User: Fold this.
Amino acid sequence: MLNRRFAGISFVALWLAACASSDPGKTQEMSGSRVLNREAQAAITPAQALQRLKEGNDRFVTGRSMDRDLSREVHESAGGQFPFAAIVGCVDSRVAPELVFDQGLGDVFCARVAGNIVNDDILGSLEFATKGSGAKLILVVGHSACGAVKGAVGKVELGHLTGLLGRIDPAVQSVRTRGGGGADEKSAAFVDEVAKENVRRMVRLLTETSPILSDLAANGALKIVGGFQDLSSGRVLILE
Assistant:
């Protein structure tokens, strides 16, 4: 009988250990709350932040997105926000970061602009999100068949859009210099390669133009990476 009791205790201990998570944000979700607090945000590492987004995207792609109580999340996040990541994305209607990465209210800062370009306003927003508000990760996400990239390749001129597309042009020229056929807006492969190059350039721009972000990254407090979403599947490839 005594051996059976010890066996039962050992089973419970092993089960509890298996349920334990090294990600403090996940531990908080298991306790009943999905909205991050200051302590949980502070404990998340940049690597864990990226892993949370990868897992969220996997849920989105496979049709297993969380069943969220948004009304509860509104209530729980009303007193403050402690997002673990900041995402720079395109304005395309099919790439909403909160949906693509299956995140809830209070989880991620989102800055969206055509072609996911970086300018002074985006830089300021990201400095606020990280140094000012504690986010551990910046993810710049481009996507396939991007209209802004097509416009940059095709030299479209339209009001203020002209200047925005000019920020993508260095990526166009870089990919074109590397060679390859069909180097125009009608080539899906060329457009997607430019979109990926544009993401890589924007990632580099973040640390090259912001001493604040550069210092955070150098000290290991922040990770900055790029991603590329395939519109046909929703899958986001991390460009590390």
Observations:
- Residues 131 and 202 are 19 Å apart (CA to CA).
- Confidence is low (pLDDT under 50) at residues 1-21.
